Amino acid sequence: MFKKNSIVKALLVGTSSVSALSITAANADAQADAEMALNVERIEITGSRINRTDMETASPVTVIGAEQIAKSGFTSVQEILNVQPTAAGMSVGSTTNNGSGGSATVNLRGMGAKRTLVLLNGRRMVASGTGADSSVDLNTIPVAMIKSIEILKDGASAVYGSDAIAGVVNIITKKDFDGTELKAEASQTDKGDGTTSGFNALTGFEIAGGNLVLGAQYSNRGKIIQSDRDFVSPGYSSSIPEGTLGGLTPDGNGGFKPRDTGFDYTKDSYAQTPNELYSVFSSFNRELDADTEFNADVMFTHRDSKQQMAPMPATVDLETANLDSEWLTSFTDEQGNVPEELEYKRRMADAGPRIFKQQTDTIRASVGVKGYLDNDATWDMSATYGRNDAKDQMENAIHGGNMIESIYNNQDLWFSPNPISSSQLEQDGIAYVENNEGGNEQFTLAAGYSGVTESDIGYALGVESRFESGFYTPDMVVQNGESASAQQDPTSGNYSVNSAYAELSVPVGEAFTVEGAARYDDYSTFGGATTWKLGATYRFTDTFMVRSVLATGFRAPSVSELYAGNSGSFDYLSDPWGNEEDEQILVNYTGDENLQPEESESFTVGAVWEVADGLSTTLDYWKFEITDAISRVDVQNEMNQCFAGIQASCDSINITQDGDLSNMTSALTNIGQQNTSGIDWNVSYVLDRYRFTWDSTYLLEFEQDGVDYTGTIDGNIGGYSELKSTFMVNTDLTDNLSAQYYAQYIKGMDGNAWGTPFSTDDVVYHNVSATYFLGDDWTLNGGIKNLLDTEPENVPNGDDMDTVPSVYDVIGRTFFVSATVNF
After folding, report:
1. Do residues 363 and 299 touch, judged by C-beta distance below 8 A?
2. How far is the C-alpha of 332 from the C-alpha of 323, rounded, in Å?
3. CA distance 633 to 653
4. Closest C-alpha among 782, 705, 696 to residue 744
5. What is the pTM of this model?
6. Residue 30: closest CA among 564, 614, 576
7. Residue 32 contacts by C-beta under 8 Å, 6 or more apart in sequence?
8. How far is Cα 695 from Cα 133, in angstroms, rounded to an integer?
């Protein structure tokens, strides 16, 4: 129906900015196929609603194929995306032991997971995690159902609406599958831990006039303890099992002495968190008549995940009037007075380590109808529903109120260095299981119309209506402030948005094409938002093209940002007054129902060049600016300014000039700003049986709230390396045996830990694998990740294990193997 010349088809690989993870054996034949292909079906490419015969849009798109995912031994979407050079900052995943809730996210350009939109087959995924979440838990998407992953690397709010500020990740699932495929896989580190195994089954067949695909996947990820890695130094905490009163520890003789020991928390904490995933999925496609198609897909994932941290460091304030005088002699001043209150701290090793467990259920179902008209235009309508329900537990939590009463009633026991029996803790109601619940819900209706005029002008327009809700209900002990952990209020709320969009692609002569898009979103919370995009491509020759896009974007405040009540967080901070003994200081976080959307501008300009037969390259400059970012003030900076005598800084976080931090609060507000720019460069080369790919991102600038983070690393915001690259070589050694070498490079970064500067070295991770085909049915794949067992760089103020696990590999050399049979 639609015609396309062979030169344009030959440019497809380069124009799509195919990454190091997307070059497969099929790509090697792309140019040969192009010479023969005259009739090509129009398809929808991520970043545009207009159906096209090629991928030569003005926006750069990276494509990662299922075959390459399998060769590299990746078992999760988060692992696939985290090695991309475009990933930066900090994201959560399998090596995030503190605060992840078992979720996994992607962070494009380091601009935050909330600013990357995740789609499934071009339609939104429901936010997922442990409740009132603002991003998608990538664990909910089983790798077995993935056909490809497309990463749009510029802003796309004019096409998709909110959240598409940094880019879009569109996960395409397998459809029109015929036959049955079974796969088993396993991996283990060379230390003998972290054992992971999985199994998936996929079958497709013709039924009821259409194609039905059914699939299931199971995976079980094993644990790794932090102290089992040589690079992890012993942890040191002032909260010790013997307890301290007023900073002094029991001497065993009825008195107190200065504390001279610390607690090593690495022996209990996970370096890799275990989880089990159970997923089932299905799709059905059928032609209702010659001009109408029906499609439906459904996916359900159950996650059982677990994190483990050292026993809870319980801190309570004791009234000295309720303490026996014999214990107060160490705290009497020269006038014979004692403080009205003394702080008691104890690492509750008596109860055992804190064990966090999550059970999440995520379901997503989508149905749609697509029609073809006589004028070659198409129309479509769809309905998509998603829901996420979670139960979140913490075993060996400590009831602070009951602990205080027990101390008053058993002072000889608590003020001795001896352990406290589990029966005593149970009798006094001190150790308990904290139970929290949460969830997210999303419902979207959409309709669109697209086509191409006789003048080859492409167009698309459509409407959408979406409803979002979320809630998180902490345990009542936590809500009432009776837990030894920070007090937290429940979160609950919802909003709706109605949208309309239009898009045009206009050829101006044979070589020049202009693209434009506009969208209006009307939110029930803050009102309307208008975004637009303007792009262009110009083909100088059959082998050289330039492209550019200028766009605006926005991100609407999420349910958790709008409706979150007070939530305490123990942040790593330096007290300029010196009143706080620990670096972890309580900060109360709050939301704001009056938040406005974030706004952004993005600009990309680049070139696509087919240099020679088999050699192509793309080079793109990009720049993003975010204003009115939903953020919190820099608490450390405000503390320092308050200490210097600036009352406004004291008021901004609710502290006093004499250093009273007891009610320190940080509220969300539209105060933040981000500016970032860089260059993406991709080179691919095919020579006989060898396929080479080099993909790099060079960061020119990353500035947030007036602070330049370019080339730096920090435990709070992650890493912003100036250069990240991947290099891959694929080769067919024989007709039945192929091999792959894959390397990831991270340039060294600078940091500052509590006033002391430090630097990390350049890091290269080497990975190898091989695939053997046993006839037409069996495929064996195996390899080694981190071949040289390269250890992570030391980051003194890292968020865990003296490093930043989302930047560096903390697992080490890992062997993986899989077997697949098709019949």
Report:
1. yes
2. 13
3. 8
4. 696
5. 0.91
6. 614
7. none
8. 32
Q: How far apart are CA 516 and CA 255, in angstroms?
A: 77
Q: How far apart are CA 689 and CA 670, in angstroms?
A: 54
Report how far residue 103's alpha carbon sits from residue 307's, in angstroms, rounded to the nearest whole number.
11
- CA 716-722-727 angle, to 5 degrees, is 110
Angstrom distance (rounded) from CA 267 to CA 226: 6
Quick count: other Cβ atoms within 10 Å of Cβ 620?
23
446's CB contacts (< 8 A; 6+ apart) are 123, 380, 381, 382, 383, 384, 462, 463, 464, 465
8 Å CB contact between 461 and 503:
yes
Fill in the amino acid letter for 40.
V
Which residue type does 380 have? D
- Which residue in this structure is represented by tokens 């109360």? 588
H/E element holding 34?
helix 30-36
Low-confidence ranges of the chain (pLDDT < 70): 1-43, 52-56
Q: What is the pLDDT of residue 45?
A: 78
**Does residue 325 sit in helix, strand or coil?**
helix
SS3 content of the chain, % helix, strand, coil (to 5): 15, 50, 35
Q: What are phi and psi of 428, to 5 degrees?
A: -90, 5
Instruction: Give pLDDT, residue 17.
Output: 40
Q: Which of 31, 108, 23, 30 is nearest to 694 (CA)?
A: 23
Say what the pLDDT of residue 55 is. 56
Other CB atoms within 10 Å distance of the CB of residue 823: 10
pLDDT at 582: 73
Which residues lie across from 432 on neighbouring strands?
A: 397
Quick one: which of 42, 40, 45, 78 has its CA closest to 60? 45
What are the structural domains, with CATH classification, of the chain? 6-166+177-557+595-632+668-822 (2.40.170.20)
Check residue 721 and give its pLDDT. Answer: 98
Half-sphere exposure of 492 (CA within 13 A, CB side): 6
Nearest-angstrom CA–CA distance, 675 and 549:
17
- Taking CA atoms, 247 is separated from 23, 346, 605, 767, in Å, by 60, 11, 59, 49
Give the pairing type, strands 116-120 and 167-173: parallel
Q: What is the DSSP letter of 269?
A: S
CA 227 to chain centre: 25
Task: Give how far Cα 5 sits from Cα of 13, 36, 214, 613, Å.
Answer: 15, 10, 37, 17
Sign of CA dihedral 102, 106, 112, 113: negative
The amino acid sitting at 615 is L
Structure tokens at 301: 């994932």
> Rounded distance, CA 536 to CA 545, Å?
10
Whether the Cβ atoms of residue 614 and residue 686 lie closer than 8 Å to each other: yes
- Alpha-carbon distance of 492 to 468, in angstroms, equals 11
